């Protein structure tokens, strides 16, 4: 059947984590599956089981290119990403599933390497892989290997998270340097001929989120800034909270190698994917003990980077190093495809 002249087509931008992806979700998906659990648009759905507590349920797919990159691979990433979506939802990760879509001709040695990484990540996070599926497709029908995961966790009693709980004056913290994963992957693709020892930050975060919630049970919300980076997450938080955000550029932790690569390529590291840090909003005055707890849990570069502010326009602004101010807008288009 011939396509109409003005027929809309899915583009790479619809998977970017930015405005196009949000349009796809809100215009195509939500109207067809409208329910409160899905409509919350969290990293996990929080399901109340009367008399039995609450479950967190999440799913994700991994199509990263290249499969193996400095600091990790698609297997380690798939388990950590699923664990982290549960952890930032206030849950203790318990069980995961894995579906493997393997292209015909994929080397056994590479598959074993990926599976070993998945097993290592599961052991580090304290989760069990309890079910899964394997499909093999003809050459050219997939790009080497795709992985789909799902995860279940139990939500800690008394923990309530959500952007709607944020208040003006609340403090924003990050658990580590931003932009490391996206930068490491783009360098690993060798499209730009850059050399660096930078590694992805991919890691399970459940021990760090638990440490935060232990000292700050009133934490407003947590998110792991993957696609769209820290800027994308903060724009989403501001919009859903109905507030503005004021960041201090000097306070945002960042590795020198990330700064150097981004300066060469013209990228803004605040929009690059992270896979081993999370952002959180805590009540005013609690960032000091929150950061201290994160550092004790291994997040040595954790920092308070800004505050929620009363702002009817819901702007995310950055006080720059040179004394100016700039606005962070939601990502438009696709900055780096297939980054996770």
From TrEMBL:
Question: What Pfam families is this protein classified in?
Answer: AIRS (PF00586), AIRS_C (PF02769)
The record's annotation in InterPro entries points to:
HypE, PurM-like_C_dom, PurM-like_C_sf, PurM-like_N, PurM-like_N_sf
SUPFAM superfamilies recorded: PurM C-terminal domain-like (SSF56042), PurM N-terminal domain-like (SSF55326)
Q: Where is the PurM-like C-terminal domain?
A: 167-312
Q: Where is the PurM-like N-terminal domain?
A: 43-155
What highest taxon heads this organism's lineage?
Bacteria
- CDD domains the record matches: HypE
Q: Which GO terms describe its biological process?
A: protein maturation
Q: Which family does it belong to?
A: Belongs to the HypE family.
Q: What NCBIfam families would the database entry show? A: hypE
Q: What is this protein called?
A: Hydrogenase expression/formation protein HypE
What species was this sequence derived from? Candidatus Glassbacteria bacterium RIFCSPLOWO2_12_FULL_58_11
């Amino acid at each position: 059947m011939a396509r109409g002249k003005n027929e809309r087509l899915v583009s790479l931008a619809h998977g970017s984590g930015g405005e196009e992806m949000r349009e796809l979700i809100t215009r195509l998906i939500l109207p067809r599956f409208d329910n409160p659990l899905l409509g919350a648009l969290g990293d996990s759905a929080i399901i109340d089981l009367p008399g039995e507590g609450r479950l967190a349920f999440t799913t994700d797919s991994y199509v990263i290119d290249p499969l193996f990159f400095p600091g990790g691979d698609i297997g380690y990433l798939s388990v950590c990403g699923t664990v982290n979506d549960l952890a930032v939802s206030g849950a203790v990760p318990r069980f995961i599933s894995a579906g493997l879509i393997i292209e015909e001709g994929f080397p056994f040695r590479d598959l074993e390497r990926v599976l070993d990484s998945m097993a290592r990540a599961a052991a580090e996070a304290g989760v069990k892989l309890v079910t899964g599926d394997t499909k093999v497709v003809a050459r050219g029908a997939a790009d080497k290997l795709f992985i789909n995961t799902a995860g279940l966790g139990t939500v800690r009693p008394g923990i309530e998270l959500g952007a709607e709980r944020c208040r003006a004056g609340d403090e924003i913290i990050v658990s580590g340097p931003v932009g490391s994963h996206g930068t490491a992957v783009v360098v690993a693709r060798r499209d730009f001929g850059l050399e660096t020892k930078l590694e992805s930050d991919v890691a399970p975060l459940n021990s760090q989120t638990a440490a935060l919630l232990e000292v700050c049970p009133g934490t407003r919300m947590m998110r792991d800034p993957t696609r769209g980076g820290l800027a994308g997450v903060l724009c989403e938080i501001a919009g859903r909270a109905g507030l503005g955000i004021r960041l201090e550029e000097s306070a945002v932790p960042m590795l020198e190698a990330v700064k150097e690569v981004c300066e060469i390529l013209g990228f803004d590291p605040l929009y690059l994917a992270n896979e081993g840090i999370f952002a959180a909003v805590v009540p005013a005055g609690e960032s000091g003990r929150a950061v201290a707890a994160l550092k004790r849990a291994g997040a040595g570069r954790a920092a308070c980077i800004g505050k929620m502010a009363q702002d009817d326009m819901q702007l995310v602004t950055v006080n720059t190093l040179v004394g100016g101010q700039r606005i962070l807008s939601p990502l438009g288009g696709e900055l780096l495809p297939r980054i996770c």
